[in-house]
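Students often ask why inverse folding is considered easier than folding. One informal answer: many sequences map to the same fold, so there is more than one right answer. In these notes we will look at a single instance of the problem. The structure comes first.
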C-alpha cells in the first residue's frame, strides 16, 4: 500500500449475481476471452462487502472516500460531466460489458492468468508466510479457479513503487503476460513525495488501465486511506496528505467507471479504524487485513462469475507477531523509511503545514487550500478523461 516499511512499492465496484449470459460467438484464435455480461446495479456496495465483518460492511452506497472530494468539488463534476457523472455509481455499478460469455479464461485451454501491479500493499507487506511476503493477491489467486485448475499468478508489485514505476516498468511485463485479470493499486507512495502531481498520476494510471483493457483483462482497483490519518499525524501535517490521497481516490473512481473495473473500497473508517486488520506500522494490513481484502475481492469477482473457487478464510493461520518482533521491525525497516522521507517529503510537508497554520490564523481556514487541490483535480480529470 504505501509508504514502505520495507519502502513501499508494493483493492471497481460491482456486486450482485449476474443474469445468465447471452451466447457469445467463439473467440478468434489467440483472442482474449470474452467478458461476462454486466450484473444489475446493486442497491448498495455494503452488501458485497459483508464478507468482511466489521471492516467492510455498513455505510451508504457511495463510498466515504468519494464525498469528501466530490461534494466539495463541484467544478470537477461540471468540467468532466461524461466521466464524473458516473463516479458515484462507480462505487456500486459496473458499465455494461462489451461482450457476453462465460467466466474469464473459460475458453482458454490454459489456466486463468492473474497479474498484480502496485506497491507494498499488493506485494503483501504485513502478511509473512514461510519467510516471504504473501498478501491478499496470493490469497485471492488460490480461490479464483475450481476443480484443481490453478491460476497462473504473477505478482509484479514492489515496495516503494510509484505510479511511474507501474506505468514504465511493471505494465510492459504485465501486458506480455496476457492476463485475464489485472490488479492496479498504486498511488499512496506518490502522495508521500515532494514531486506529487495529480495530473501526471492520472495520465499514467489511465495509460496502464487502457493498455490492460485493450488486451481483454478485467481490472481490479481499490481506493485507500490517507497515510496521515493512519499514522496519526497532527492536523497541519495530516491535512495536506489527506487532500492528495482523496485526489488519487477520485482518479481511481473515475478510471473504475471508465474501464468497468472491479473496485473495493478500503478508505472507509470502519476499515481504517479496526486495529485488528493492521500490522504494527499502521501502514500495511496484517494477515487478517490481507485476508479481508482477498475476501472482499473474491466476493465481488464471484458475483460476476470471475471467481470459481472457495473464498479465502477470514481467520489468520499464523500467530500474530510478538511485541518484540513488531518493535524490531519498526526499528529497522521503519527507521529507514522515516530517514528517506525526511530527505524527500518532510521539507515540503513542513511548508504545507505552515500554509495550513497561516490560513487558520487569518480566519480563512482550509477553504483556499481545498479549492486549490480541487482545481488541480478537476484539471487532471478533464485532461485525462476528455480524450
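Output (designed amino acids):
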Amino acid at each position: 500500500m504505501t509508504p514502505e516499511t520495507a519502502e513501499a512499492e508494493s483493492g471497481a465496484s460491482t456486486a450482485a449475481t449476474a443474469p445468465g449470459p447471452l451466447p457469445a460467438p467463439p473467440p478468434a484464435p489467440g483472442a482474449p476471452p470474452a467478458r461476462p455480461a454486466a450484473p444489475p446495479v446493486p442497491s448498495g456496495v455494503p452488501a458485497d462487502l459483508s464478507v468482511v465483518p466489521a471492516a467492510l460492511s455498513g455505510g451508504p452506497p457511495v463510498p466515504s472516500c468519494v464525498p469528501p472530494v466530490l461534494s466539495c468539488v463541484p467544478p470537477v463534476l461540471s468540467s468532466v460531466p461524461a466521466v464524473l457523472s458516473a463516479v458515484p455509481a462507480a462505487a456500486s455499478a459496473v458499465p455494461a460489458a462489451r461482450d457476453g460469455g462465460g467466466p474469464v479464461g473459460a475458453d482458454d485451454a490454459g489456466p486463468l492468468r492473474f497479474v498484480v501491479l502496485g506497491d507494498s500493499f499488493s506485494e503483501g507487506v504485513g502478511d509473512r508466510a514461510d519467510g516471504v511476503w504473501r498478501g491478499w493477491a496470493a490469497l485471492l489467486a488460490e480461490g479464483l479457479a475450481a476443480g484443481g485448475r490453478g491460476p497462473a499468478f504473477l505478482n509484479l508489485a514492489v515496495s516503494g513503487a510509484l505510479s511511474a514505476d507501474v506505468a514504465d516498468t511493471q505494465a510492459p511485463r504485465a501486458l506480455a503476460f496476457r492476463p485475464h485479470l489485472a490488479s492496479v493499486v498504486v498511488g499512496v507512495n506518490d502522495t508521500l513525495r515532494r514531486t506529487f502531481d495529480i495530473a501526471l498520476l492520472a495520465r499514467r494510471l489511465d495509460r496502464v488501465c487502457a493498455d490492460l483493457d485493450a488486451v481483454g483483462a478485467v481490472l481490479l482497483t481499490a481506493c485507500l486511506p490517507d497515510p496521515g490519518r493512519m499514522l496519526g499525524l497532527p492536523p497541519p501535517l495530516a491535512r495536506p496528505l489527506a487532500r492528495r490521497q482523496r485526489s488519487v481516490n477520485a482518479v481511481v473512481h473515475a478510471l473504475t467507471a471508465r474501464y468497468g473495473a472491479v473496485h473495493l473500497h478500503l478508505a472507509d473508517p470502519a476499515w481504517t479504524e479496526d486495529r485488528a486488520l493492521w500490522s504494527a506500522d499502521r501502514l500495511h494490513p496484517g494477515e487478517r487485513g490481507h485476508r479481508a481484502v482477498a475476501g472482499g475481492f473474491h466476493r465481488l469477482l464471484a458475483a460476476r462469475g470471475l471467481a470459481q473457487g472457495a473464498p479465502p478464510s477470514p481467520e489468520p493461520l499464523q500467530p500474530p507477531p510478538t511485541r518484540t518482533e513488531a518493535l524490531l521491525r519498526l526499528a529497522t525497516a521503519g527507521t529507514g523509511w522515516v530517514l528517506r522521507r525526511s530527505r524527500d517529503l518532510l521539507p515540503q510537508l513542513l511548508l504545507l503545514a505552515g500554509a495550513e497554520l497561516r490560513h487558520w490564523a487569518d480566519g480563512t481556514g482550509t477553504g483556499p487550500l481545498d479549492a486549490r487541490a480541487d482545481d488541480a483535480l478537476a484539471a487532471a480529470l478533464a485532461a485525462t478523461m476528455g480524450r
